[in-house]
Amino acid sequence: MNKFVIMLAGGRGERMGLSINKILMPVCGKSVIIRSLSAFIPYADKTVIVSRPEDRPAIISEIERNGLSFPFIFADGGPSRQKSVLNGLQSINPDPDDIILIHDAARCLVSGDLIERIIKSAKEYGTGIPGIPAVSTFKVVDSSSFVTSTPKRSTLYEIQTPQGFSSHIIIPASLQASEDGIECTDDAGILEYYNIPVRVILGDTSNIKLTEPGDLIRAQSVLKGDATALRIGMGYDVHRLVPERKLILCGVEIPFELGLLGHSDADVALHALMDAMLGACALGDIGSYFPDTDEQFRGISSVILLQKTAQILNDNGYNLFNADITITAQRPKLLSFIPHMKENIANAVGIPVDRISVKATTTEKLGFEGRMEGISSYAVCTVVEKNCI
Ligand code: MG
After folding, report:
1. 377, 358 in Cβ contact below 8 A?
2. Distance from Cα 313 to the centre of ligand 1, integer Å
3. CA 197 vs CA 171, 190, 192: distances in Å
4. Same domain, 71 and 220
5. What is the per-residue pLDDT for 389?
6. Separation between Cα atoms, residue 387 and residue 318, nearest integer Å
7. Is 256 exposed, middle or buried (0-12, 13-18, 19+ CB in 10 A)?
8. Which domain holds residue 124?
9. Chain segment 15-63, per-residue pLDDT in tens
10. How many angstroms separate the alpha carbon of residue 248 from the centre of ligand 1?
11. Could you say which of 46, 153, 171, 262 has the lowest number of CB atoms within 10 Å?
12. Are 379 and 273 a contacting pair, CB within 8 Å?
């Protein structure tokens, strides 16, 4: 049994006050279409992106820029939602028991849990659509603005996407509706018209449809509260203590008879921090950006490398949120230098100093740090997707 996704990406940005298709708009550093497509990648055997032909190059470049790899094809959007869906359905050739998921790309916060529950319902019952029980009272109003009835609230649900169907149910009904000239505002509506039962499962209140500018703020606040928007990294580094080298830790030159050996200024604490920052974003390590075989980094201040690392995060859509560094050194005593160290880091990465922690410890004379052969450092940090702070 295969699963096909019909991703409706033909919207315009008018109600958002945008000159571009709203699905290309970034939400917390990632475009709406990329968020929607990514959500379905683990479940879809093939995705049909239904869009206006003029939006295709931008959608393709977004997919490439984000390194997404999944089977997809394009279909042209039609004059109505229903025609767009039909174009998508006619571009695939599913078996009767294959599952079709139809989704509005503008609902870019759709969760894997909801997609899984829709697939399960479509498998077992032939249909599954997500609905939120109504909390407000709804009234039916006539064209003269007079109420004609008040439906019982417990029977009302606000319907979302994805809507999931067995292929042998949705395809004939969509073709028939097109022939009969029936227009519905969602895909389940067509089935209802032909008296085919449609099953509602509990939707997700975070699965909002981005339509108006206020929706964008709601989406950002959902993402801010979403643990997946927060990433944690850790870094570790060691440098050897030798005579006739400066001892530089977190950009502070510390008077001491020994210093750290390395290609750069050997600032072990900042090296650990940079690795934590890159690690949090799965962007490799400092060796791959600042190799110790490269002459341009000989003797360079690691504060400059830290600034460059913050820029790399920024270019990839991330901001450092906080960092906690531990320096392990038997001697010298570092306590009095810590305020200056924290300030250097905060200035280099451009975040408030109260989100930077630097601590120093000894190893009670145990191990290489205890024998003063070297100094080690650990760093842990969090980064957030850009625009989320
Ligand atoms: Mg190092």
Report:
1. no
2. 19
3. 15, 11, 7
4. yes
5. 44
6. 9
7. middle
8. 3-225
9. 666 677 889 988 888 899 999 999 999 999 999 999 999 999 999 999 9
10. 12
11. 153
12. yes
CB 39 within 8 A of CB 47: no
pLDDT (tens digit per residue) in 255-291: 999 999 999 999 999 999 999 999 999 999 999 999 9
- Tell me how far the alpha carbon of residue 355 lies from the centroid of ligand 1, in angstroms: 23
What CATH number does residue 340 fall under? 3.30.1330.50
CA of 266 to the centre of ligand 1 (A): 6
Q: Which of 205, 225, 245 finishes a domain?
A: 225
For ligand 1, the distance from its centroid to the CA atom of residue 288, given in whole angstroms, is 12
Domain end, chosen from 225, 248, 271, is at 225
Question: Which residue, 322, 324, 383, is CA-closest to 355?
Answer: 322
Contact (Cβ atoms closer than 8 angstroms) between residue 358 and residue 301: no
CA 115/CA 119 separation, integer angstroms: 6
Is the pTM above the cut of 0.70?
A: no
Give the distance (Å) from ligand 1 centre to CA of residue 28.
Answer: 32
Question: What's the CA-to-centroid distance between 290 and ligand 1, angstroms?
Answer: 10
Q: Are strands 258-260 and 230-243 parallel, antiparallel or unpaired?
A: antiparallel
Separation in Å, CA 325 to CA 260, 351, 355, 356: 18, 15, 11, 8
Please tell me the distance between residue 231's alpha carbon and the centre of ligand 1 in angstroms.
Answer: 23
Low-confidence stretches of the chain (pLDDT < 70) are 11-18, 225-228, 386-389
What is d(CA 10, CA 53) in angstroms, rounded to the nearest whole number?
9
3-state secondary structure 312-378: HHHHCCEEEEEEEEEEECCCCCCHHHHHHHHHHHHHHHCCCHHHEEEEEECCCCCHHHHCCCEEEEE
36 and 48 assigned to the same domain = yes
Cα(63) to centroid(ligand 1), Å: 35
Verify that 24 and 173 share a domain, yes or no.
Answer: yes
